């Protein structure tokens, strides 16, 4: 990267033979877009990816769905991360929610009830023991589908679709019956994604998403490292041509 073009010239090598240097195209710096698979939103602050699943599932089924994509129901480390999630456009559809006024997602907290006397007293816990998360929700609004026998309720984060409300970070927390069906928010670590949108495992070679299909890198902690670029000569006998954006050194001739 960054090398100057080498002009075509002749030099005398050993024995008097002629050595020819060819001008080649220089690889341009690449702006990677590789941190999350398609459909996921990336947040640099936690090096994480987020995705809302609109199919209604109960809390326990939502947990399993997130695990199948190497993630978990989302929890938050700080208010800035929560604000990032609230500001996103999740392409929500009216028909995907159980109730018309509901804009809620299961997230990775549970409310443990400790006293049912006059008011429901309890506290929030992170649903996954051993988590390093430090952000816990404030006192919740209790859902309408609560059971008198349940001592554990599950967290729903309510978002607003109106842009002005969304960007002001307005939201509510609900403690709801865990067997209610709802959309849900998954969170996973950022990852390497290749030029064809395949997820790449740690330590493997891949071509990152970007504008250079001739780049080969190693995936390390979700980042492409130790990248090597192949440089292609222009196709012979063709004046006008187009590079294939996803195949290295593949051209289409545009001559009549």
From TrEMBL:
GO cellular component: membrane
InterPro entries assigned to the protein according to its UniProt record, in alphabetical order: C-type_lectin-like, C-type_lectin-like/link_sf, CTDL_fold, DGCR2-like_CTLD, IDD, VWF_dom
Domain of life: Eukaryota
Domain C-type lectin positions: 45-187
Name of one Pfam family that matches: Lectin_C
PANTHER family noted in UniProt: INTEGRAL MEMBRANE PROTEIN DGCR2/IDD, INTEGRAL MEMBRANE PROTEIN DGCR2_IDD
Protein name: IDD protein
Source organism of this protein record: Nyctibius bracteatus (Rufous potoo)
Lineage: Eukaryota, Metazoa, Chordata, Craniata, Vertebrata
């Amino acid at each position: 990267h960054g090398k100057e073009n080498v002009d075509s010239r002749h030099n005398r090598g050993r024995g008097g033979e002629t050595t020819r240097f060819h001008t080649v195209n220089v690889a341009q710096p690449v702006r990677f877009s590789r941190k999350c698979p398609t459909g996921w939103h990336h947040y640099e602050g936690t090096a994480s990816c987020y995705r809302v699943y609109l199919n209604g599932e109960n809390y326990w089924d939502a947990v399993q769905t997130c695990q199948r994509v190497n993630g978990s129901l989302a929890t938050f480390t700080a208010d800035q991360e929560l604000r990032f999630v609230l500001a996103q456009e999740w392409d929500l559809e009216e028909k995907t929610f159980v109730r018309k006024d509901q804009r809620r997602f299961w997230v990775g907290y549970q409310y443990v009830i400790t006293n049912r006397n006059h008011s429901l007293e309890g506290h929030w816990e992170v649903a996954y023991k051993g988590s390093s998360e430090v952000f816990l929700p404030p006192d919740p609004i209790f859902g309408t589908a609560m059971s008198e026998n349940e001592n554990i309720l599950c967290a729903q984060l309510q978002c607003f679709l109106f842009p002005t409300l969304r960007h002001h970070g307005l939201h509510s927390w609900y403690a709801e019956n865990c067997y209610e069906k709802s959309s849900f928010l998954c969170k996973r670590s950022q990852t390497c994604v290749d030029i064809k949108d395949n997820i790449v495992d740690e330590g493997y070679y891949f071509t990152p998403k970007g504008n250079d299909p001739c780049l080969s890198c190693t995936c390390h902690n979700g980042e492409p490292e130790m990248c090597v670029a192949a440089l292609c000569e222009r196709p012979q006998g063709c004046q006008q041509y187009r590079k294939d954006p996803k195949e290295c050194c593949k051209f289409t001739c545009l001559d009549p």
